[in-house]
Design goal:
This protein has 896 residues and is mainly beta. It contains three helices and 62 strands.
Length: 896
Amino acid sequence: MKRTLLSLLMACLILGGFSQTTYEDFESGAALSWNAADGVYNGVFENPDKLGINASDSVGSYTKSGAHAYSLFLATLATPMDLSTNNQFSIQINAPVATQFILKLEGTGEAIEVTKNIPQANVWREYTFDFSAASGYTTLTKIIIFFDPGNGTSSDTYLFDNLIANPAGVCAGTVPDPGILDDFECQRNATYGVGWDSLSAIANPDPTGVNTSAAVGQYIDPLDEWSALVIDYENAIDLSTNNLFKAKIWSPKTGQVLFKLEGGISPASEIFVPVTVTNQWVEYQANFSSQSAANHKRLAIFFNAGVTAVSGDIYYIDDITREPAPTGVIFEDFEPTAKLSWGPLNGDAAVHGTYNGLVSNPDMTGDNSSSNVGSYNKGSSSFSTLTALISGIDLNQFTQLNLQVLPPAGAAEVTLQLSSPTQGIKEVTRPLTGAGGWESLSFDFVAFTAITDFDAVNILFDPGVSNSGTFYFDNLVQGESTVDPCEGVVPIANIADDFECQRNVTYGAGLDRLEVINNPDVSIANPSTKVGEYTDVLDEWSALVLDYGQDIDLSVNNQFHIKIWSSVAVPMKFKLEGGSSSAVEIDTTISVTGSWQDYTIDFSALAGQSHHKVAIFFNAGVLPSQQDVYYIDNLRWARKNYTGCVVDYEAPETTIDNFKYFANGHLETEGYEFKSVANPAPGGINTSLTVGEFVKASDALPFAGMYADLDAPIDFGGNPVVKAKVYMNHIGNFAVKLEGSQTGASAIEIIVANTKVNEWEELSFDFSAAPVDARFARLTLFFDLTIDATGADVTSYFDQLVFGNGSCSFVGIDDLLPIRQLEVYPNPFSDWLSLENTEELVRIEVYSALGQKVKSVELNRQSNQRLDMSDLENGMYILAGFSEDGLVANRKVLKK
């Protein structure tokens, strides 16, 4: 049938045995009387780009109104169109932006319209429309075009040309199949963006094997390594069900094909598939079920990804489809025999135990009624390992492996390992309940989806424990994740509720009106999957109350943040109450509706007071006419904007210390963590006890560095300067990069060379080019940016980083600050040290003579304190006393 179809298509093209209707080509002026119902029809213009598919001299031009979402222009014909034969329309468009347009034919009581994506700006593209469903219409006299439909603020100018109707072909009346993106015959439902000019439909050059279709796509690979064929959806792709992408590809060389989802607000997702067979059709697939809730707008297909193409590299592609992903892959079920070759690690039965082979299921009464299962006894090692070679593990397809285990009495846990020849062993451990009988364990390897070469699976039964009992196992299956994604998540104290994994607050009043739902407006402003839905009742003072049950600590994190999506503009009230202090109210207003907005309530003036609850009043003081619904998310406490001294390791409660390495060679791979350490050379301009350390790895990339995501934006306070003290054992540079702007400003990076070796110096960075409202929320630091690694690990130090005005205070070893001396006795001391007049102190920190912090003790605001110093070696120490405002007292002491 497909071969007959292609023959008919080719015959029509070759014989030219048909006529067409040219409605508009602008070559002798406008053939139709175009009028703008909204916007401006600019008349006939000279074609500005004759090098593409449209070599015409003249084209039409239209400018949107900028005031109407569906700004349109149209032409009215003197007589109705005859669509009985010529009902396949085409039009060429050159658009200033990637968007959509609608072509509509309208008459008296009759109309037909189709929306098409415009995937690329500033290039002529031709779009085709099947209007054969209107072949019997007799009143169609209007041709209407809507550009950028739904955008009421656009005033862009669009060029159009060559509006032509051709006879209905063999594909006339084809109903688009949403599961077929392109079969290069009648189901041509994809809109191609990048790569469209490298793709053409041709006769199948090799109609054999898995693809005997008559027509296929021919893709001529551009001469680089990362060109792609991009299918542009314009809007977010619905991946909730049809998330398995397939394509038949005929490749002239081995390599790998890359399927990539991109273009939305979610991070891009890539799946590499090896190409091992050449010069024949092979069906490749990419399972994006892990992206079922993500936001992507484009599918990019890279032929021989990452390899520079050479002249003559031609690929053929066909039957690009979407369908529901399979529910699982069975690696081992022992039915009727074992599918994998199990055995002790390295074949060492004495150490790693004995695989007893396939045996009858000793307990068919529980969750596993299989006839056959595997049996294993541990060896002399408490970490005895059972192993098997395995292939086909694609964690982008499914992230979870499931295993059923029948353990002996007393067994506590099972570890499942996947082994990669390039990335080593990755493991997940799950507990056993000890209830007896078969247990179904789920191991989620979601953290390792980037690894594509796992070739072995290991099982450690009761690792670290000697156990002589027999373990039975069965049904090793890769499938969809069922493990609670919040399992093991450590609560973050300053996050009250993100309606996902950080649900750390107890609600009082209003809890019965609060539900967790899917985000109704996933956007850049709030890409969260889950949010809270709060339904306000019909009175003026109902509230949603967060009840902490104790005093809310406002000493540092005193800015209450909340995201709100509201359909109505209303007054808001935030109230602190419920403690021994008087209640305090702060008013604000929801003025922007229909989108996620951030609100910040400043409670810093209440630090030190006693309040247990935060009450949130929507439409405060107003009796609503209906039960309004509000959406809320990311309720959290944060510090005020970062300004002045932001890095000073003498005051750890306010300093930035959550730096993470990147591009740092083996140190990054090993998970090397940023550390604050003893000042290597206290003296000169920096006698601080503790400073920040950065180790540049011997195999680091030239742009290796570390970054910290801030829980509040940077505020220069009118002085856009950054100052930092650095200590390096060589001449290089130090760079500061500000990024993550909350207002969309571009990142700014400044490099300053150091001038001193083995001596502290202060460097200054001018950020006056940054917009005043940039609100940067990520700080990135580099040592020796753009300079290649030396082949050895290089350690450098930094301290006392200041944004804008101000400076950092510090505790010196030889030059103590002019603050009060702690009252201590005895001095010298042996094991115990007494302190007097400590009512204002909240913490004592103890430093060695070299500046290394060796002890920190929280105090209880009593006038006298005793410190147990028995764990310290004899020598000189410095005590630093901190109040809620910072360092206020110190004293040198001697232990002997």
